[in-house]
Amino acid sequence: MSVSNFLHKASLFFLYAVIIMACLPSHVKAQTGGEVQSETIIIEKDKKLELPPANREFEKVPDPQPQAAPTNSKYQTQDIGILLPQFDTKVKVPTTKTDDPVEIHHHYVKAGFGNYTTPYLEAFFHTGKQKNYSAGARLKHLSSTNGPYKGVKNSLNEIDLQGKYWFDKQWVNASIGVGRERYTWYGVSNHDNVADWNDDAHKIIFNKVNAEVSTGSMGTGKWSYNTGIKFGYQSGNHNNKESNIDGLLKLNYQKESNVALGADLFIGSSNYTDSVSSLSRALVGLTPKYTMTGDKWKATFGLNYTYSGDTLAGSKGSHLYPMIEGTYTLVPNKWILEAGFKGGMEKNTWSSLTAQNPYLANRNTLAHTNNKVNLYAGIKGNLGNNINVKAGAAYLLYRNLSYMTNSANDSSQFSMLYSNDNTSAFNLNGEVTYDAHPFRTGLKLDYYSYSTGNDTIIRKPWHRPSFVGSFFAAYTIYKKIVLKTDIYYISGISGLNLERYATTGVYQETKLDAIFDVNLKAEYRVSEQFSAFIEANNLLSQKYQRYLYYQSRGINLLFGVTYRF
After folding, report:
1. Does 502 map to a domain?
2. Of 79, 103, 474, 503, which residue is most buried, by most CB within 10 angstroms?
3. What is the pTM of this model?
C-alpha cells in the first residue's frame, strides 16, 4: 500500500473519529468557546482549515447585513502572519467593527441588477443564538452576460448550510455548501475572430461541494482540544476533478499557570484526475509545542515535522522546521512587540489555484510550496481608543514557489511554474485603522521584493505584485444613510507569454500597468426593514490587466434593494 493511499484511508478514519466524538453524550447547556476556524491550509503554527474562497472581480457586491451588535473598537493581540499575496485581483481591505444597523435582524434578502446584464440575488436566514444551538442558510446568485467583450460570461451560484450545537463541555459545528462557477477564456490577441465565446473551447465551469465537521472542548480544565475534518470536491467541464480531505487536531495541556504543552496534528489527502493522468498526494504535519508566559512576555518553542507526497524535489519527503515565536508587552493594552522564526509546507491544489486564477490550463503541474524560512518581527498597538496601528517586516525563503505564465500551447490559458532554486522574498507591511462611530477608515500597505535565482524561465516573479495598497472608509448619517468606499492599488506585475517564447525563442517580458481601482457604495435605509443601495465598481473605468491579456471591465454599476426580517 502506498503512503498516499494509506493517508487517504487515515483521513477517512479521522472523519469517523470526529463524528463519533461529536456524538458523545453531554448535558446540554449554552456555552461559548473556541472552534476550528477557516483559513488557507499551511502546516505551521496556528493555521486553520479552509479551501480558499474564489475572490473574483465580478463578486464585488454589497456587504452582508451585520448579524451581531457592534462594540467599541478594542485592540486585540493577534499573530503577525506574513504570507505572499495570491494571484487573484481582489485585495484584502483592512476592516474595523461594522457600522450600526437600524436593528439587528436574523434574515435578509437582497436583489439587484447592473450593467453588463448583471442580476444579483442573495438571501440569508439564521436562527440567531438560541439556548444551545444556532443554524443558518445562505444562497447567492451573481452573473453577467457580458464582460470586457460582448458574450464573455461569468456566473456564481452558491448554497450554504451551517449549524452549531453546545453541550455542557463541548461544542459541535457542521456545514455543507455547493456551488457552480462559470468563466470564459477570453485572453486572446484578436477578439473579433471569436464567433462564439460560449463554445467548449472558451467556456470554464467549476462545480464544487464542501463539507466540514468540527468539535472542541469548553471550560477551564487543564486539557483542551479542537478537532475537525473538511472535505472538498471540485469538477470541471474539461474532465478535471479533485477531492481533498483535511483533518486537524489541536491539543493543549496547561501544566502550570505559566507553562503549557501542546501539539497540532494535520493529515491531508488530495486526489486529482484529468483527461490524461491522475495524481494522489498526501500532506502530514505534526508540531509539538512548549509555551511559557511571564508578566509581559510569552514564548513558544516547537518543531514542525511535515511529510509531503509530492513529486518535485524540494517539496517531497520529510521536512523539519524549528519554531520560535514570542511577544513582549511594551505598554499594557497599548504596544506589543512580536518576533518569530518558523517554516512550513504551503498546500497547493487544483481547487486552491483555480480559486486564485480560474483561467488555468486544463493540465498543470501541482506541487506544494516549501516555506523553508519565515523570519518576522513587528509591533502593534493603539493610539487612544480609536486608532490601531501595526507594522512589520519579514524575510522568507522558499523552494518550489509557484508562478503563473501564459501557456506555451494557448496564451489565453495559464501554466503553473515552480522555481527549483531557492527563492527569497522580503516584505515590509503597515496598517492603520480609525474606528469612531459614525466614521471608520483604514489603510494597509505591503511591499515585496523577490530574488528568483538562476532559472532560465523564472527570471521575474511572474504575476506576483511588488506593491499592494488598500484603503477603505465608511460614514453613517443618522442611521439612515451609509456611504462606503474602498480603493486598492497594485503595481509591479510582470507577465511572460510562453507561447511566443516557444514559437519564436524570443524572451519578452511584459510589464503590466498599475491597477488603481476605486469603488463606492451608498445605501439608504427607508425603514427598519427596507433599504436601497447603489454600488459603483472601478469608478475610474480603468481597463487594467491583473493577468496578461485579460482586460478588466470598465465601470460597473449595481442597483438593488434589501429586505430584513
Report:
1. yes
2. 474
3. 0.84
Residue with cell 510569552: 298
What does the alpha-carbon distance between residue 259 and residue 217 come to, in Å, rounded to a whole number? 19
In Å, how far from its chain's centre is CA 419?
A: 23
Domain residue limits at 540: 3-79+105-564
Q: 90 lies in a domain?
A: no
Contacting residues for 124 by C-beta, under 8 A, at least 6 apart = 64, 65, 107, 108, 109, 136, 137, 138
Single-letter residue type at 198: N
Tell me whether residue 93 is in a domain: no
Identify the residue whose cell numbers are 479521522. 14
Residue at grid coordinates 491550509: 41
What is the secondary structure of 434-490 as a DSSP string?
EEETTEEEEEEEEEEEEE-TT-SS-SS-TT--SEEEEEEEEEEETTTEEEEEEEEEE
Which has the minimum average pLDDT: 44-53, 80-89, 207-216, 260-269?
Answer: 44-53
Q: pLDDT tens across 486-539, in order?
A: 999 999 999 999 988 788 877 889 999 999 999 999 999 999 999 999 999 999
Residue 353 is given by DSSP the state: H
We report the CATH number of the domain holding residue 327 as 2.40.170.20
The total of structural domains in the chain comes to 1
User: Is 295 within the bounds of a domain?
Assistant: yes
